[in-house]
Amino acid sequence: MMFFRKQELEAPVQPADPTGLREKCRQAELPEAVGVAVESEISRMEKTDAAVAEYSIGLNYVETLLSLPWNAVTQDNLDLAQAAEVFDGSHAGLGQVRERVLEHLASRVLHSKRQASLLIVDDEPIARSNLRHVLAREGYAVEVAANGEEAMALLARQEFDCIVTDLKMDRMDGMQLLEAARAVAPETKFILVTGYATVDTAVQALKTGAVHYLSKPIDLNELREAVRSALLSRTHRYSNRSPILCFVGPPGVGKTSVGKAIAEALGRRFYRMSLADLRDEAELRGHRRTYVGAMPGRIIQALKSVGVRNPVFMLDEMDKIGQDVKGDPAMAMLEILDPEQNARYVDRYLEMPFDLSEVLFIATANGVERLAGPLLDRLEVVQFSGYSEGEKLDIATRFLLPRQLRGHGLISPYPTILPEALVRIIREYTNESGVRGLEREIARMCRKLARLRLDGGAEAVAAPVGSEGAAVLLGPARFRHDDAKAGGLVGTATGLVWSETGGEIIFVEATRMRGPGQLILTGSLGGVLKESAQIALSFIRSNAGTLGVEPDFFEGHDIHIHIPAGGIAKDGPSAGLTIAVALVSLLTGRPARSDVALSGELSLVGRVLPVSGVREKILAALRGRAAMVVLPEANAADVEALRESVADLPPVVLVGRVEQALAVVMSSQEGEPCTE
Length: 676
Known about the structure:
By secondary structure, the chain is an alpha/beta fold.
C-alpha cells in the first residue's frame, strides 16, 4: 500500500482543467501564437482565485479567443452563370451596376480557377524530367529550364506561382536566379533544392526570399507538401489586392440588397453593420483588457457572430461616420480596409493579429463628399442611379407588390392590382429616386385591402384595383407634378439639381428694385451657389449689348435672386445656367419657358460647363413632366448612356454657350419641338 502511495507522490502532477478550456483549445485548432497566448492565460487563471476580478477578465478573454473563426471559411461558389441568375431574379433596373458587380465576381472566379503554374530549374535532365512528371500529376502546369538564364527568359514571357530550382548550376545558379527573379516577379514563391545542404546555405536562402529549402535526394512527399504550402498564399493574393467596392447612391435604390445578392451568389455568409451612429474609435478597434467592461471592436464581434472569417461584410452608411474627442473612426477604417495591412489586423482587446484579407468588404454611402480623402482612396466607387418610371413599375410588379401581399395575408386569393394603379402611386404618391417610399405606399394600400377583406370577406376586394381604386384607398395625392408646366413668368427659370435623395426640380426667381446696386441672394444658398450667381451677373453686365439688356441696368437698382424652400440648404456647381436665364428674362422682360429644365455651370466668358448627376436630373425632369431638358454638350456621353436604359426620355438639347440656351428657353411657342 505504501508503495502505491510513493508512486502517486512521485508521479508528475497534471494541471487541473476545471473549466474545460484546455480541451476546447485542442478542439479549436488555433494558430500557434494564439494557442500559446491561451495556454499562458489559462495557467495564470489557475493561480488566481475565482472570486478575484482578474479571473473573470482572463476567462472572458480566453473564451473570446476560442470563439473566433481563426480557420473557419466557406467555399466560394464559382459559377458565374448562377450568380447572374441570382441578380436577375432579385433585382431590376440596375444596368451598369449589375455588369460591374458581375465583372468583379468574374475576376475572382477566373483567379480561383486558374491552374497553378510551376517552373522546374535544374541542369540535370533526369532530375528535370522526374520532377516535372511528379508535379504534373498533382494538377499543376509545369515548365522546365536547364539553368537560371533560361528561367529568366521564361519569366519574361509569363508569370509563375512557384519556382523549384537547384542551387548549384552553371550560367546563373539558384541563389542568383532568386535575386534576379525577385525584381521581375516579386509574388513568385521559391523552393531551393541542393545535394550539399548546410545550415549556412539554408539560412542564406531563406533570408534571400526562399520559402522552403530541400536537400537531395528529394523526398517526394516532402516536395508535394512544400509546393502545396507555397501555393497557399496564391489563393489569397487576389483577395488581398481586390478593390473595396463602395456603392454610392440615393436611399432606396438597392445598395444593401445588392450586397446580399453578392453574398448569395458567392455562397458566403452576409453581415451588415451600420456606421451611422459610430462616434468612438474604440468601437472599431476594441478596448484594452485593463478597462472596465472591455470588449472587442465591432469587426471582431461581427466575425464571431457569423462564425467564418470570409463573409461578405457590408459597411452601411459610411458617409455618416462622425468624430468626437474619443477619436476619428474613419481613420480607424484605413487599417481595416487597406489590403496591405488588414491581413494582420490587431484589435486592442485581442492584442494579436487577425487575418481580415479574406473578408469581402462592401461599403455604402449616399455621397462621397463627406468621406475622408485617404479613406475614399481605398474605395472603388460604384454609382447607383435612380430608377425611371418604367423601372419602378417593373420592380413594383415583380418584387414589391407580391412581397406586401404575402406580408399582409392577402394570398387566398390574391387581389388583382392593375398596372395603372401602380403607375398612379408612382406618379402621385411618391417623389423619389429609389423605391423605398413606393413600397411604403403599396404596403399602405395592402393594409386597406386587408381590412376590407376582414370586414366584408373575399367579395369585398374581388374587383380589380385600378387607378381610381388606388386613389380611393390612399386618399388625396401627395405630389403634384405640374410645377414644370407650360407657360412662363418674367424673371423665373426652371433648374435641375442633384441631392443625396436624387434629382429634383428647383425654380430660380429674380426681381429688380431701386437701390444702391447690390446683389441679394436668399434661399439658404451655399458658397458655391452664391459664386455662380455672381458669375452669371458679371457675364450679363459684360455682354449686355449682345444679350439685349440695357447697359446701365445695375445702376441705381438692386437685384434679388431667390430659390424657394429656404429651409433646405442648397449648394453645388450646377445652377449657374439657370440663374443666368432667370436674370436675362428679368432684364429683357421676356418670359422664360417653365417647362424647359436647365442644368449647367457657367464661366465668365459664357461657356456652359459639364455637371454631374445627369441621370438623376433627367429622371427628375421626367417626374416633373418637363417638356425639354437643356444640358451642357460635354455631358453628351451621359445622355447617350441613359438613352440605352430609359426609353421615354424627354427631348434633350445640348448647348455649349449661354446664348444657345437662351435661344431655346426664350422661344415664343410653348412645347415646340427642338432638334437635339
